[in-house]
Every structure is written in structure tokens, then in C-alpha cells.
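User: For my dataset I need records formatted as: sequence, then C-alpha cells, nothing else. Please produce one.
Assistant:
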Amino acid sequence: MKKILISVCLMMAVFLPLAAEGATVDSVLTSLTSRNVTTGNFIQEKYSAKLKKPLKSSGSYVFCRDGIVWQTLKPFKSSMTITQTSLIQVKADGSKTVIDGSANEVFRSVANTVSSLFSGTRTELEAVFKIDSFTADKGIWNMALTPKDATIASALKRVEIGGKLTGNEASLDSMTIAQSDTESTKYTLKDQNYKKELSDVEKALFK
């Protein structure tokens, strides 16, 4: 439960619209809230020393200020929606579970972390993460983070994100979350679409 919350919230936290090539950490964070809604498709690969080959899944996502929706289409259909107060899970058979996180200390810790990242200030980011590296050169940007917060650090060791820079716009194309030295999850993001508001169908996913 805790690892699910942290992984999804990190997805929210790092889905950054970036500034132009030569961007700084500050300009990246300043532009954090410039896009109201981002949708797209993903491929997830889970790596572990216990596995002979990575476990793969794919689907679509919705990212907005209300939260994030992670809809897995293959190998099995399911969806997970996380907001500031709840976690909504829908299984392949259509059964729905809503978990109230308002009284859960772990949930509130992660949700508050996401809120601080959405403030778009380096001070708030560095209260939770150490920025190990940031580069923006030749049309490519990359950032590496390690958690300071004990709740997050208990579930992951390092986060690496990267993407392309095109003029004044940028895309987040990859994210790797290392849970330990032997376990990691890589997300490849594509087909990004940016819009001002959620559709009626997308709004329903948050209820």
C-alpha cells in the first residue's frame, strides 16, 4: 500500500513541464503548474534480481491538479486513481475499492509531499529530495533525486527522470524509480497531450 502511494505520487510530482534548453532547476519548478491536464500512454517495466526478465504492463494515464489516474490495459485491465484524500482502485472485473487516506499518516505524508512539489519552489523540493544532478543540453534534460523524507526513503532509493526539449517546451519521456540496488521500475511515457480541463469521462474517474 505504502509503495503504491509513493510511486504514484512521485509520478505526479515529476511530471514536469520544463523550460527551454539550458533550463535550470528553478525554471523547471516554476513551470510545474503551467499545464492543467496531461494525458498519454505508458509502458512499465519492473526489474528484480529475482526475475529472469522484466515484468511489463502498458496503458494510459491522466495527470492533473486533482490527482493522477493510472489505467493499465495490458496484460490485465485495472485502474488506480489517487487524490489528496483517497485511493480508488478498479479491478478487471469492475469491482471498486475506495480507501480513505485522510486519517492515514503515511498517506498524508505522501500527499503533503506532492502538494509541496506543486508549489513550484526549489525550497519545497529540497525539503524532501536531494537533487543529485540536473542537466539540460542538446535537446535533452535529465534529473536525479534521492529522498530525504524517511517515509519515501523506506520505499525507494533513487529517482531518475528525463525527456526532450523542443524550443520552450519539453516532455517527460522516462522515469526510473529504484526501490533498492536490485529492484527498480522504469516508465516510458509517450503520446503526451496537454489540455486545459478534464473531459466528463475523465472527471468521473476521480469519483
